[in-house]
């Protein structure tokens, strides 16, 4: 299970007692969840008005940052196209896997100094993650353009003989070049029509050079034949060939153009390889930054909601529960029994009601402070 419930309850005589009580109820007798203390430092409380406003702002910031975290993770899977199994090992926070980071969460004092007000800390996070989001858009756009252009060229060099580029199939020797009167045409003939082609190509129009056809290349369905004729017969030959289900390809042998295509493909391929390493490194670093920011927002939200609900002085225990998948319903019931005294109205509050500062519109409401953290951020198609 990669899902965690981040909850808080008011301190009894001590916060340790709150923790012990919850442990007894959820793990000691019935193994409903694996629990960890979630350490939130002594943050600056500020005024009630500010807290109420922050509660709403942070709900929006939470979903914005979660969105960016998921975008970076998803783009990592797109970039590591051939090695998706490697994605998970690149999605780390502070060099450790996400579950380890969340369960051993420590506030980053250097990045988010606790002497700052809660509003300032949330603004630091907001700016930092908005920057990651903008950078991701720019980098993804540049890399996707490169990848798209390369795929278009690769597509031109693959597929059916009716549509694919012929530059890498034909050679200079296959053509009559620099002749005022003669021209070599390339014709796609279905495999079932080879005998028919050999029998009739010389008579499809006037002025076809006898015995001038050669099979140059085959794919699953058809073959590419060359045939030499007089230039003045081109239109007639093309028309008669179509009537006989042979397709004349529009192709003129031009070494410069063909080399330019090959060079362009090599250049794009080299550019893609050059950009790949730095891009993966950037994604790795910024995934970590965004994920760490996201968990700090969860910590801020728990702090703000706990102060709003349980009052001052600040006295609550934040706890991270990793529910046992089979027992999630039972765990909810146990927590409900344990904390129902905190708010007698909780069981009847409709989640659609919007009470300022309690942030109910986005999620279910419980008598204890509750936020979900899901570390499974990838949507493999």
UniProtKB/TrEMBL annotation:
<dbReference type="GO" id="GO:0016020">
    <property type="term" value="C:membrane"/>
</dbReference>
<comment type="function">
    <text>Subunit of the V1 complex of vacuolar(H+)-ATPase (V-ATPase), a multisubunit enzyme composed of a peripheral complex (V1) that hydrolyzes ATP and a membrane integral complex (V0) that translocates protons. V-ATPase is responsible for acidifying and maintaining the pH of intracellular compartments and in some cell types, is targeted to the plasma membrane, where it is responsible for acidifying the extracellular environment. Subunit C is necessary for the assembly of the catalytic sector of the enzyme and is likely to have a specific function in its catalytic activity.</text>
</comment>
<keyword id="KW-0375">Hydrogen ion transport</keyword>
<dbReference type="GO" id="GO:1902600">
    <property type="term" value="P:proton transmembrane transport"/>
</dbReference>
<dbReference type="InterPro" id="IPR004907">
    <property type="entry name" value="ATPase_V1-cplx_csu"/>
</dbReference>
<comment type="similarity">
    <text>Belongs to the V-ATPase C subunit family.</text>
</comment>
<keyword id="KW-0813">Transport</keyword>
<protein>
    <recommendedName>
        <fullName>V-type proton ATPase subunit C</fullName>
    </recommendedName>
</protein>
<dbReference type="Pfam" id="PF03223">
    <property type="entry name" value="V-ATPase_C"/>
</dbReference>
<comment type="subunit">
    <text>V-ATPase is a heteromultimeric enzyme made up of two complexes: the ATP-hydrolytic V1 complex and the proton translocation V0 complex. The V1 complex consists of three catalytic AB heterodimers that form a heterohexamer, three peripheral stalks each consisting of EG heterodimers, one central rotor including subunits D and F, and the regulatory subunits C and H. The proton translocation complex V0 consists of the proton transport subunit a, a ring of proteolipid subunits c9c'', rotary subunit d, subunits e and f, and two accessory subunits.</text>
</comment>
<keyword id="KW-0007">Acetylation</keyword>
<keyword id="KW-0406">Ion transport</keyword>
<dbReference type="InterPro" id="IPR036132">
    <property type="entry name" value="Vac_ATP_synth_c_sf"/>
</dbReference>
């Amino acid at each position: 299970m990669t899902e965690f419930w981040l909850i808080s309850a008011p301190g009894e005589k001590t916060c340790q007692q709150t923790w012990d009580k919850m442990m007894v109820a959820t793990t000691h007798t019935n193994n409903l969840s694996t629990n960890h203390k979630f350490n939130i430092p002594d943050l600056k409380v500020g005024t009630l008005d500010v807290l109420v406003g922050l509660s709403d702002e942070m709900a929006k910031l939470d979903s914005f940052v979660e969105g960016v975290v998921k975008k970076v993770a998803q783009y990592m899977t797109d970039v590591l196209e051939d090695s998706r199994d490697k994605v998970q090992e690149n999605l780390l926070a502070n060099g450790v896997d996400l579950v380890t980071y969340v369960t051993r969460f420590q506030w980053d004092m250097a990045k988010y100094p606790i002497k700052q007000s809660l509003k300032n800390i949330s603004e630091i996070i907001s700016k930092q993650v908005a920057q990651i989001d903008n950078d991701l858009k720019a980098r993804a756009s540049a890399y996707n353009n490169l990848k798209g252009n390369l795929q278009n060229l690769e597509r031109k060099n693959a597929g059916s003989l009716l549509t694919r580029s012929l530059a890498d199939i034909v050679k200079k020797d296959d053509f009559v070049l620099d002749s005022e009167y003669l021209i070599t045409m390339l014709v796609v003939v279905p495999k079932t029509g080879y005998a028919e082609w050999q029998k009739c190509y010389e008579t499809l129009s006037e002025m076809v050079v006898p015995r001038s056809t050669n099979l140059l290349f085959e794919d699953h369905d058809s073959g590419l034949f060359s045939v030499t004729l007089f230039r003045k017969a081109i239109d007639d030959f093309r028309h008669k060939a179509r009537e006989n289900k042979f397709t004349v390809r529009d192709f003129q042998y031009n070494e410069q153009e063909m080399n330019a295509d090959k060079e362009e493909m090599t250049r794009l391929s080299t550019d893609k390889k050059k950009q790949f390493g730095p891009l993966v490194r950037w994604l790795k670093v910024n995934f970590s930054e965004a994920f760490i920011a996201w968990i700090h927002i969860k910590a801020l939200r728990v702090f703000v909601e706990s102060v709003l609900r349980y009052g001052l002085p600040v006295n609550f225990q934040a706890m991270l529960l990793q529910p046992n998948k089979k027992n999630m319903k039972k765990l909810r019931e146990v927590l409900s029994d344990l904390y129902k005294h905190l708010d007698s109205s909780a069981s009847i509050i409709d989640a659609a009601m919007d009470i300022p500062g309690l942030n109910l519109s986005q999620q279910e409401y419980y008598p204890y402070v509750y936020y979900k953290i899901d570390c499974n951020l990838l949507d493999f198609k």
